[in-house]
Design brief:
The protein is an alpha/beta fold and 204 residues long. The protein has a single domain (6-199), classed as Rossmann fold (3-Layer(aba) Sandwich). The protein has helices spanning 19-32, 56-67, 78-81, 88-98, 111-115, 123-129, 142-156, 172-180, 191-199; strands at 6-12, 36-41, 73-75, 104-110, 131-135, 160-163. A six-stranded parallel beta sheet has the order 3-2-1-4-5-6, sandwiched between helices. Helix 2 packs antiparallel against helix 9. The structure holds adenosine-5'-triphosphate (ATP) and magnesium ion. The site of adenosine-5'-triphosphate has 18 residues, from helix 1, strand 4, helix 5 and helix 8.
Length: 204
C-alpha cells in the first residue's frame, strides 16, 4: 500500500456543467481509484471567444451545485482568479504548489480536446508532469482518438490512458441552444443547476 495520493483534474468552461462532465469524472475516479477530482473552471479559455462566455461567478456557482453531493469532487478556482488567459501548464504548476504532497496527477479530458493537444502551451512539458486520461466523446471518431493516443505516446512519451465511459451525447453548446429555442433541458444536467439557470435567466 502506498500513501501517494492520486488526484484528477478536470478542466472546462462548464457553461453550464452537465451530466457528460459528471459521468466522465465519476467513471474516471472509480476506474483509476482516484482520491479526489478537482474541477477547474476556466477563466478566459485560450481556445474560446471570451466575450460569449457566461460570467465566471455564475459558472462557478453551477459547478458548486452540481458537485455538492459527491464527497470526492472539489473545485480548484485558480483560473477564475486570473485576469489574463490561463493555460493548463500554469494551472498544473499552481496546483502542485498548493498541495504539499507529491501526488500523482491525472488530467481528464474528452476526445475533442485530446485531438488538438499540440496547440496547448508547452504541451511537451505537460506530458512530463501529468498523466492524461482521454475519454471518447460522441461526435468524435474512436479510431482517430486511439491513433492520436498512439501518436502522442510514440512522439512525446506521453502517458495517456483511454477510459471507457457510457456515451452521453450532451454538450454545453447543445444545452444553451435548447434553452434559446425553448426546449427542455431536464435530465441533461442536475435539477439544482437547471433551477439556477431558470432563476438567473441564463442563456436566453
Ligand atoms: P461547449 O459545448 O461549450 O464546448 P462542452 O460540453 O464541450 O461545452 P466543456 O466545458 O468545453 O464542455 O468541456 C470540458 C471537458 O469535458 C472537455 O475535456 C470535454 O471534452 C469534456 N466533455 C464535455 N462533455 C462531454 C461528454 N458528453 N462526454 C465526454 N467528455 C465530455
Ligand atoms: Mg467543449
Amino acid at each position: 500500500m502506498s500513501d501517494t495520493k492520486k488526484i484528477g483534474l478536470m478542466g472546462g468552461t462548464f457553461d453550464p456543467i452537465h451530466y457528460g462532465h459528471l459521468v466522465l469524472a465519476e467513471q474516471v475516479r472509480s476506474n483509476l481509484d482516484l482520491d479526489a477530482i478537482y474541477f477547474v473552471p476556466s477563466g478566459r479559455p485560450p481556445h474560446k471567444d471570451g466575450n460569449k462566455i457566461t460570467d465566471k461567478n455564475l459558472r462557478l456557482a453551477m459547478v458548486k451545485l452540481a458537485i455538492a453531493d459527491n464527497e470526492y469532487f472539489k473545485i480548484f478556482d485558480y483560473e477564475l482568479k486570473k485576469e489574463e488567459k490561463t493555460f493548463t501548464v500554469d494551472t498544473v504548476k499552481a496546483f502542485k504548489d498548493m498541495i504539499d504532497s507529491k501526488a500523482v496527477l491525472y488530467f481528464i479530458t474528452g476526445a475533442d480536446q485530446l485531438m488538438k493537444i499540440e496547440s496547448w502551451k508547452e504541451y511537451e512539458k505537460l506530458f512530463e508532469e501529468i498523466i492524461f486520461v482521454g475519454a471518447s466523446r460522441p461526435g468524435n471518431d474512436d479510431v482517430q482518438l486511439i491513433q492520436q493516443i498512439h501518436y502522442l505516446k510514440d512522439n512525446y512519451h506521453a502517458r495517456i490512458l483511454h477510459v471507457e465511459v457510457p456515451a452521453l451525447a450532451i454538450s454545453s453548446t447543445d444545452i444553451r441552444n435548447r434553452i434559446r429555442e425553448g426546449n427542455s433541458i431536464k435530465y441533461l444536467l442536475p435539477d439544482r443547476v437547471e433551477q439556477f439557470i431558470i432563476e438567473n435567466k441564463l442563456y436566453k
